[in-house]
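Lab channel / #folding
Pinned by the channel admin:
"Please post every new chain as: sequence first, then the structure tokens as a reply. Keep commentary short and put observations after the output so the thread stays searchable."

First post following the new format, from NK:
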Amino acid sequence: MREKNKTIIILIIMLAYAGCVPKKNLTYFNDIEELTEPIANPRLQKVIMPFDKLYIKVVSIDPLANQMFNSEDEIRGGGEGATGLLGYPVDENGNINFPFVGRINVLSLTTSQAAEKIQESLSAYVPNTSVTVKFVDNQITVIGEVQRQGVFQFSQDKLNIYEAIGLGGGITRYGDRKNIILIRNESGKIIHYRLNLSDSKIAQKDTYYILPNDVVVVEPLDAISSSYANITYTTILTSITTLIAILLFIGF
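Reply from TO:
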């Protein structure tokens, strides 16, 4: 009987140990002590791509021109975004359709370069203007082992990967911080990147920053996943250990 009880106790310990996740799999920056110098990041400014949406504000000394180009009531270019700013959509060829001027190609320009080009195009119609261009309706998708899956909007040109994960409420205890998949559309091709959030040197990579329309997928840990069943591993483990304890109590 003692041998049988010893075997059962060992089994319980093994099951409990199997349900434990090593701390290094649940923490970020496991190698932070190894860093001796600040990490430089090649942060590049986002350029305008097809299907982006731009907020364009024209400031002029002429009140009529201000009202014409910055109307609060007229919704141009496909409607008002969630940010409350009027958006001009960029078509598949990189053009926007601007009042009076017509089509202006802004493909592969930064927002400041696009502002200069629009201002130059407007100068023939409205002198002494100042133009501001911003991205609007930026969004990313965060799915997998995060607290809240979904599509999230942001106003910055881009986020870093940790800010993107934060929009989803952070990674669950079942998420693999060393196995984050970033899906990005680059020049008409879908590219998949694999990121390791426990690596402090991740900031050196250009994929450290998340661009609009990126998809971030948090993969589950190999040992434990809560994505494929309603009953979690912890619940199963608790049920097994409770059953064994009852059997021991009744002398089975």
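NK: Residues 73-84, 225-231 have pLDDT under 50 and may be disordered.
TO: also worth noting, DSSP finds five helices and twelve strands in the chain.
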